[in-house]
């Protein structure tokens, strides 16, 4: 079985359609020659194992130790949605990479039960379909962009606001020190909460973004969607708006908003809520550009004339 970064083949779409290889194959092959298929399968399996273990720990923390919010409110939490998207994405790409390496022909797998399982895990049929490629690449973009948005919003907006609100509400020296610690050293207050809560917070609001950066740089060779960049940006903005609607549903169901800035009582006016919401939607294309920046750096580093992995 070949372990080259990209497998050649017939019946692949012309480069003018989307990419020189279907995006599904590019999601299953690293751009680096020193990462062969066996190493990629092992790496993807390790990341998937971490994500599943971290998700189990997060569920335990949310249901047994977290004092704020209700269990149902987690369904509307942006970080929860980002974590779910990350797990689903890595589950799919691990399955594709594994079967493409070890079971390239699902119909030849022996076993009444094994064959349909391997077939379900395998790369989709008709990989040259522009529509299928568009939807999967949009899924990849949405997962990455939402993770980036979640990190930016939490570290730059939510945490400073929560610390300041604690100082105003409690009015204690401890709360004031919390504000000072937050503004000076970003992790000082978290490190005083015990390792478990610190791990959960960092995993929810930083690890997923880091994993998606590693995904872009090392685990796939997906190229920028230059043909559909406008459609992707509009779709991501639409998905961001759809999340705001989902958050409003969460308010009606649980009585809590997923973000403080969605609550008129906390920000002072409907106009402020509107401005925050517009900023949230506009953050999506900004993070999409950041994602393309990472892809561009990888493309430069792995270009034949500049390759450093030889």
UniProtKB/TrEMBL annotation:
<keyword id="KW-0472">Membrane</keyword>
<feature type="transmembrane region" description="Helical">
    <location>
        <begin position="199"/>
        <end position="222"/>
    </location>
</feature>
<feature type="transmembrane region" description="Helical">
    <location>
        <begin position="234"/>
        <end position="253"/>
    </location>
</feature>
<feature type="transmembrane region" description="Helical">
    <location>
        <begin position="134"/>
        <end position="156"/>
    </location>
</feature>
<protein>
    <submittedName>
        <fullName>Uncharacterized protein</fullName>
    </submittedName>
</protein>
<keyword id="KW-1133">Transmembrane helix</keyword>
<dbReference type="GO" id="GO:0016020">
    <property type="term" value="C:membrane"/>
</dbReference>
<feature type="transmembrane region" description="Helical">
    <location>
        <begin position="163"/>
        <end position="179"/>
    </location>
</feature>
<feature type="transmembrane region" description="Helical">
    <location>
        <begin position="47"/>
        <end position="63"/>
    </location>
</feature>
<keyword id="KW-0812">Transmembrane</keyword>
<feature type="transmembrane region" description="Helical">
    <location>
        <begin position="273"/>
        <end position="297"/>
    </location>
</feature>
<feature type="transmembrane region" description="Helical">
    <location>
        <begin position="75"/>
        <end position="98"/>
    </location>
</feature>
């Amino acid at each position: 079985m070949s372990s080259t970064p990209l497998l050649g083949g017939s019946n692949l779409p012309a480069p003018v359609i989307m990419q020189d290889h279907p995006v599904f194959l590019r999601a299953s092959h690293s751009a680096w020659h020193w990462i062969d298929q066996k190493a990629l399968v092992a790496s993807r399996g390790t990341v998937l194992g971490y994500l599943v273990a971290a998700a189990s720990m997060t569920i335990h923390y949310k249901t047994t130790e977290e004092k704020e919010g209700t269990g149902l409110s987690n369904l509307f939490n942006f970080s929860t949605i980002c974590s779910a998207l990350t797990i689903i994405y890595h589950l799919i790409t691990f399955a594709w990479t594994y079967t493409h390496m070890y079971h390239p022909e699902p119909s030849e797998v022996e076993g009444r039960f094994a064959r349909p399982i391997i077939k379900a895990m395998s790369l989709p049929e008709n990989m040259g379909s522009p529509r299928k490629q568009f939807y999967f690449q949009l899924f990849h973009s949405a997962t990455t962009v939402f993770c980036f948005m979640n990190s930016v919003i939490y570290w730059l907006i939510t945490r400073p606001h929560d610390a300041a609100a604690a100082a105003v509400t409690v009015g204690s020296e401890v709360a004031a020190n919390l504000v000072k610690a937050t503004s000076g050293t970003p992790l000082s207050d978290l490190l005083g909460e015990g390792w478990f809560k610190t791990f959960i917070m960092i995993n929810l609001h930083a690890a997923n973004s880091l994993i998606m950066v590693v995904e872009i740089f090392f685990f796939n060779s997906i190229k920028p969607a230059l043909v559909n960049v406008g459609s992707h940006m509009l779709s991501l903005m639409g998905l961001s708006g759809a999340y705001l609607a989902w958050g409003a549903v969460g308010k009606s169901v649980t009585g809590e908003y997923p973000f403080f800035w969605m609550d008129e009582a906390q920000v002072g006016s409907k106009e402020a809520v509107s401005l925050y919401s517009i900023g949230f939607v506009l953050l999506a294309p900004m993070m999409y550009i950041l994602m393309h920046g990472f892809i561009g750096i990888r493309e430069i580093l792995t270009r034949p004339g500049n390759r450093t992995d030889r």
